[in-house]
Amino acid sequence: MSGQRSLALVDANAFYASCERALDPSLEKRPVIVLSNNDGCAIARSKEAKALGIRMGDPWFKIRDLCRREGVAALSSNYALYGDMSRRINEIYRGMAPSVETYSIDESFLDLTGVPVFDGDRTGYGRAIRERVLRWTGIPTCVGIAPTKTLAKLANAIAKDDPALAGVCDLGDPEERGRRLDAVKLESVWGVGAATALGLRRMGLDTAGDLARMDARQARQAFSVVLERTVLELRGVACIPFEEKAPPRQNIAVTRSFGKPVHTLAHMLEAVATHAARGAEKLRQQGLATPRVRVLMETARHGKGLQRAVSGTCVLADPSDDTLDICAAARAAATELWRDGYAYAKAGILLEGLIPREAIPATLFPKRERTGSTNLMAALDAVNGRFGRGSLQLASEGIEKPWKARFGMLSGLGTTDVGVLPLVRAGDGSGWRLFEVAPSPGGHGAAAEPVPTPDAGLWITPPAPECQADLRPSGASAADRDLFSHASRDD
Amino acid sequence: MLQPLILPQAEILVPNVLEGVCAGFPSPADDYLDDPIDLGALLVANRPATFLFTVDGWSMRDAGIFHGDILVIDRSLEPRDGDVVVAAVDGERSVKRLHLSGGRPRLAFENAEFPSYRIPELSEVAVFGVVTWTLHRMRGAAGGRR
Hints:
The complex is a heterodimer. Chain A contains 15 helices and 15 strands. By secondary structure, chain A is of the alpha+beta class. In chain A, the strands form three sheets. In chain A, strands 5-6-1-7-8 form a five-stranded mixed beta sheet. Chain B contains three helices and six strands; from the N terminus they run αααββββββ. Mean pLDDT of chain B is 74; it is low at 1-20. Chains A and B meet through helix 4, helix 6, strand 14 and strand 15 of A and strand 1, strand 3, strand 4, strand 5 and strand 6 of B. Strand 14 (423-425) of chain A pairs parallel with strand 1 (50-56) of chain B.
């Protein structure tokens, strides 16, 4: 197989639930689910929770009784913990592969082309990656190895489904690949959404193998360039580049559900200003500026009251990364959109058409002096970096923020804050002193599938296509999406 | 907030004061200055595998581990005879001395005031990681937080 690339996709199993288990051994044997922002619905399920029939996105109020009855541990999402664990596993990958592309919080591509230890025993090396991640962090993973990204994704899915593979699937060998592809439905292929799958079925195609044998030109003519690329990738021709550095974002979204419905414009303006300030902070972290600010608000989707979901854009005089400019624009747009008489459940801002900060065109008569703004924002970020987010904010963001989301069932454990380190017991004479012990380093067996994006992409009036807020073009169920769109996911 | 595991250098290090301050002669030590000691690097040998835990209880007192101390745990190390380890016993995480000699592995307290040992019904035990450091606050120790 010389001349071919060797990519490995390593994907954590039920990542959020696994992170919680890594810190709390009492969760080891129990079914675990993690709830979205505001404790709204299930966004991660351990294998045991899946077996109970809990589905992705099930609203908490519908599964609460089941969870009580079956002893399911339901936890609020703890993103500080998940982010730290993600950083740890990526650090491990970087120690085992010359280049790593962090694709999402729980998936990374490793380029292992030409690595001698890998070439010596490909699946053995895949197992070594899994074992190290499990042992060092407690997170179970699966590894898919192949010459292209699309095949590596597929290999990963196969590794998850077939217990005989022990978590590692190598599709490097063309013969073995052919057999495997013929056994996989085409819906499992990365980038093939429901609509495309339906069209392909009408043409008599059924498996990933059928798709690989499809005429590439026909794929483009009857469907899209994206599908043509998928066909080629399935044949082992790499079309999707390996990107070690994430390409600059084209847009940044900050959206949140409210802790309780918002009925007044005053609270809506506070929320929108808070989200706008967070968006501006993200802009500056990446050295970007935004030419416009879109504001979105919507009522509960399955509530009794009147339904409304709207969005509107305010264009800035000059592109900016200044919190003051962006908050003012967001408040203006929100005021314009506001109608009394609705119980709003969610609001957000979207910064679109981002440009690098240096590319802000110089204007003859700037509305505000640039240097002053730069210094003020640097001071703002420095204060918040040192004393914690929200230490210094605009008054318009509100002080009490009664609309803020609830995290009622946080485990309260963390790895990044000395105040919430997990406890380890040192006896207090509870009776035992001597135990049989089997020094087994790892945790639990392989568990459920990866976790899709929480709480994003639920807008009734979707923004322009390039701004889809749901950002993972991954997984079998992902709708057809441009694989190269890089919208932002909210932290 | 997000990266306290690695202590920020500027706050714990002795800076190279000599260089900037001397207006007259350059310091003869300039050529010999080493990098200052990085406490983070000292305590954390393997960053992705290192976890911190707070101790709750006194059963390891005689090993020098006190209630309220912070343990540095390296999960990448192979547990050896005599290591202090954190182990999950029946779903509860606990710090103990690991004995591997004499045929079968054992976990033991280290506090002379604790009741003499007995072996309970078979419990499930898994070693979480090896304790490499314990951080004990000497001034203004609160004596535990919960």
